[in-house]
Design brief:
Number of helices: 11
Order of helices and strands: HHHHHHHEEHHHH
Structural class: mainly alpha
Largest sheet: 2 strands, antiparallel
Distance between the termini: 39 Å
Number of strands: 2
Helix content: over 70%
Strand content: under 5%
Strand order of the largest sheet: 1-2
Radius of gyration: 20 Å
Length: 292
């Protein structure tokens, strides 16, 4: 796939993301536009993950697994659309905000067990199938839910800063790796990644963290060293997310999670680092390490 085509697709994706964020920000309550997008992406990502697992004999019920992953993300609609009833989500609600996707994930795992009980014919597959379903529920459902809740924490800054840091780390790692790469970081999983590239990626991630936080809401007094912690940890975790998905693809013996996006692979190839970094970014924002 030539560079021009990749640049064109990348521009289209960025423009679409900006348009969706703009539309979401125009509404009175956050997440109402982005949540349906997250549900749709979770379905596509869960299907790609299912196919990767199927190549190595993990075959939980496909429809149930996909529906469960999407349902975990869709359960956030309780919090997102609650204000349409005329009042804000009650802060003293015993289940909290994250309780909905966590409860949905627990129910989804119970459903995976129930489905395997019904499908059981002989020993040898049930444990693997339940494990495959659980992987999808957590990796796709719970991690995507944390992306949704980043949007709910306070404006677009938490979500936008995550994407900026992670993708800047990707660009830095690729560029510095091509220019200065000598020492392989994980040659058996991803031969192209180098320690020099990783260092460059983290450096660019920290710069992106500072610029994003400074230009989109934080003043110098609020920033402190939070931008450095945020950039380094979120950038590093995103890099590990890329390696994690490479591990899955390497084990399945494929180059891309799917081929429906020429030049980029599949949904998981685009979202892998963002999904993996979402829990860390959420914790840093929720704990006040970084503030808008």
């Amino acid at each position: 796939m030539n560079l021009v085509w990749r640049l064109f697709l990348g521009t289209v994706f960025i423009a679409a993301l900006v348009a969706l964020c703009w539309a979401d920000a125009r509404l009175a309550h956050p997440g109402m536009v982005l949540l349906p997008v997250a549900v749709a992406l979770s379905l596509l990502a869960a299907d790609e993950l299912w196919q990767l697992g199927a190549m190595r004999g993990l075959r939980p019920h496909r429809g149930t697994t996909l529906a469960t992953c999407a349902a975990v993300v869709a359960s956030n609609a309780v919090v997102v659309y609650w204000p349409l009833g005329g009042s804000s989500y009650p802060p003293n609600c015993s289940i909290g905000e994250l309780g909905w996707p966590l409860a949905a994930a627990a129910l989804g795992l119970m459903l995976a067990f129930a489905v395997e009980m019904r499908r059981y014919r002989e020993p040898g597959a049930s444990i693997a199938n339940v494990a495959g379903a659980a992987l999808g529920i957590v990796y796709v459902g719970v991690f995507m839910s944390l992306l949704v809740h980043l949007r709910l924490l306070g404006g677009l800054l938490p979500l936008v800063s995550l994407v900026a840091v992670v993708k800047s780390c990707d660009i830095g790692a690729y560029t510095f790796g091509r220019l200065f790469g000598r020492h392989k970081m994980s040659p058996r999983i991803s031969p192209g990644k180098t320690l020099e590239g990783a260092a460059g990626g983290i450096a660019l991630a920290c710069l992106a963290s500072y610029l994003a936080l400074r230009s989109l809401g934080s003043d110098e007094a609020t920033l402190g060293l939070g931008w450095l912690v945020y950039g380094a940890t979120v950038g590093f975790t995103g890099m590990m997310g890329d390696l994690a998905e490479s591990l899955l693809k390497r084990d399945a013996g494929v180059k891309d999670s799917s081929r429906w996006m020429p030049g980029f692979g599949g949904v998981l190839d685009v979202l892998d680092s963002i999904l993996f970094a979402a829990p860390v970014a959420y914790l840093l924002w929720a704990a006040g390490v970084v503030r808008g």
